[in-house]
Every structure is written in structure tokens, then in C-alpha cells.
Amino acid sequence: MRFSKELSRISKLDRYVRPDKVQGAIKLDSNENFALDRGFIAAVAKDAAKRVDLREYPIDELEELYAKLAEYAGVSEKYVGVGSGSDQIIELLLTTLAVNGARATVFVPTFSYFINRCELHGILVDRVPLDGDFELDAAMFALRAKKADLVYLCSPNNPTGGQIPRKIAAGIIDELDDKLILVDEAYADFAGYSLAKLATKRENVIVLRTLSKAFGLAGARVGYMVTNEKLASVFNSTIQTPYPVSTLSLAIASSVLERSVHVAKTVEAVKSERERVAKRLARIAGIRVFRSDANFLLIEAGRKYRTIADTLEKRGIVVKLLGNVAGHPGCMRVTIGTRRTNSKFVECVEEVVA
Ligand SMILES: Cc1ncc(COP(=O)(O)O)c(C=O)c1O
């Protein structure tokens, strides 16, 4: 039976491991925005719950969200698509625009979900390594990508944190004008630039964004994309399912976008904390911190990795333990949270290494 052969192939692929939920822990493992007050999001959700009628399918709320997202991204609504998290948009694009046997070029390390979904769908993945400082050799990348159908640029990159300089990213896009290019900007709100406007003018570029990070709505599952008018229209009318996001999530998302000035303040706080934490960690012997344009830091702890990991666990601080990342031993990815939680993390590392 064909399906059992396929099931057997799929069962051997990398599986998604959901992070453990440790009660009462300081959660610094999934790059959510805890600088945004829980009460703020709860109040918005309560208000949204009062406004919507869950007996109806979400129609007006979707239209309202397109408008709010377009305004935030600085583009017209006709360039915007919405999904149940950017995860779902990636999944849909891979299953419709990249056929089985297609080839994708990515640089590594990068967002493992993207690679895993390609492998699930039989898309061959060419991995171009970043250099020792996790910088991209753009010429080599473009050369390799010429053999691909699909190109994935994570900007800023997860788990390294760095954003490819704008000129370099634009140069790669110029060279690869016959490839489908997905620019994953899940963390762009914390970074220097977005290619959303550029994507509206190209036939082959899709910028993926999300409200899960800066906007504090990981639980609401709202992602969006910005691309040219034709692709956006086909995505919304044919590729996307009719009602991918619940009325409640749509209404919450629109309300939080209305309060984007408040969100931006928390983003600025996270960015300044990111620099403070990076500076303090860089002073610790044996610890290396990589440049980040996102709301997290990648730290190479080398031989101190196990001791730091054990101590963090004892103190109820949960970070993403990655181990060896592209030859860098003992790496962990740490979300930048509030000043208090960030300080707890740094103090723990300082104490262990002293
Ligand atoms: C680079 C990147 N893209 C996309 C996502 C998925 O975000 P969403 O919650 O919108 O599915 C994440 C989440 O961690 C991410 O790190």
C-alpha cells in the first residue's frame, strides 16, 4: 500500500517537540513578548469577547484585520494575506506553490520548522552554512540558490538572531528573480528593516510576519504575509482555507494593532534590554554572545553549558537548550523578557561561571 510506505517515511522525519510547560517558571525559551503586560492582553481579549458573535463565521473581522495589518505594514490591503500563525502560511505555500521534488535553498542554522516541513512534503533542501560568526556569504548562497525553485531567508534569523544587511538581502532577491523567495520576518519588529514594501513590487517575493512575537499574541495564532497583488489575491481566495483564524483571534489581533504605539514601547524596551544583557554576558569569560536583531540572544557557553543549564533549571528559568550549533559547542537561545527576568538569567550565568 502506497500510503503505508509514505507513513513509514514520515515517521522517520524530525518531529516537533513542544516545549515543556514548567509551572511558575520564567519562560525564556520560545521568544514570546513578556515585556507586554499579561493584563493588557487579557483586557483586550475580554473586550473582544464582548464584541464578537461566535455564532457567525468570521467575515467582517477578517476584513478589519486586513486593514489594520496593511496600515501597520505601510502597504495597501490588497497585498496582505492572513493565516493561523505564520507556520500555517508556510505550510500552505509549500504544499501549493512548491511541488513534490522541488528544491529549496536555505542557509543554516535556521528555523528548523521550515526545513522539517520541506522534508515532510518531499522538497529537497540544500543547506548553505553560515560562517563562524553566523554571517552569510551572499555570493555563495545566490550561486547555490540558482539551482533551487524556492529560497528561504529568515530575517532576523532564528536561532542566531542576526538580520542580513538590507543591501545584501535585496541583492540576493535581485539575482534570484525566477525563484519563489520566502522572507521570514517573524522578528522584524525588533530589527532594522522590513522587506514588506519591496515584496509588493516583485512577482516572486513573499514576506511572512506574525503577531506571535512583538504583539504578544502567540496563543491567538495570527500570522500574515505581504506580497504582490496577484499572489495575495490567489492566496486569500484559493490557497487559504475560508476561515483560517477564529473570530475571537481576529478581533483581538485588530485591537492590539490599534494599540501598536504601546506595543512599540515594549519592543524598544526589549531592544535596549537585549543590548544590556549582551554586554553583561560578553564580559563573562568563556561565554560568547552573537549579535542579535531579534528578541533573543544566542549564547555559546562551551564547557560551562551543562552547569549553566542545570543551575537555570534549578532556579526555574527555562531557555532553549540547543547544544552544538554548527560547530559552536554548548549553545542556548534565550528570550529577552522583562528587566527583572533578564537580570535573573544573567546573574545565574555570572554566578555559575565565576
Ligand atoms: C522564524 C520563525 N518563523 C515563524 C515562526 C512561527 O510563528 P507563528 O507563531 O506565527 O506560527 C517562528 C516561531 O517561533 C519563528 O521563529
Features:
single chain, 354 residues, alpha/beta, Aspartate Aminotransferase, domain 1, Aspartate Aminotransferase, domain 2, 2 domains, 7-stranded mixed beta sheet, binds pyridoxal-5'-phosphate
Briefly summarize what is shown.
This protein has 354 residues and is an alpha/beta fold. It contains 13 helices and twelve strands. The model has no long low-confidence stretch (mean pLDDT 96).
Write the layout of secondary structure elements.
Elements: H1 2-11, E1 26-28, H2 38-51, H3 60-73, E2 80-83, H4 85-97, E3 103-108, H5 112-120, E4 124-129, H6 138-145, E5 150-154, H7 166-175, E6 180-184, H8 196-201, E7 205-210, E8 223-226, H9 229-239, H10 247-258, H11 260-282, E9 288-289, E10 296-300, H12 305-314, E11 317-325, E12 328-335, H13 339-353
Parallel strand pairs: 1-11, 3-4, 3-5, 5-6, 6-7
Antiparallel strand pairs: 2-8, 7-8, 9-10, 10-12, 11-12
This protein binds pyridoxal-5'-phosphate.
Strand content: 15-25%
Instruction: Decide which structural class fits the backbone.
Output: alpha/beta
What fold name goes in the CATH topology slot of the largest domain? Aspartate Aminotransferase, domain 2
Placed side by side, the strands forming the largest sheet appear as 2-8-7-6-5-3-4
Fold and architecture overview:
By secondary structure, this protein is an alpha/beta fold. The chain has 13 helices and twelve strands. It has two domains: 112 residues, Aspartate Aminotransferase, domain 1 (Alpha-Beta Complex), CATH 3.90.1150.10; 207 residues, Aspartate Aminotransferase, domain 2. 44% of the residues lie in helices and 18% in strands. The strands form two sheets. A seven-stranded mixed β-sheet has the order 2-8-7-6-5-3-4, with helices on both faces. It has a five-stranded mixed β-sheet with strand order 1-11-12-10-9, with helices on both faces. The protein is globular and about 60 Å long. The model has no long low-confidence stretch (mean pLDDT 96). Pyridoxal-5'-phosphate binds next to helix 4.
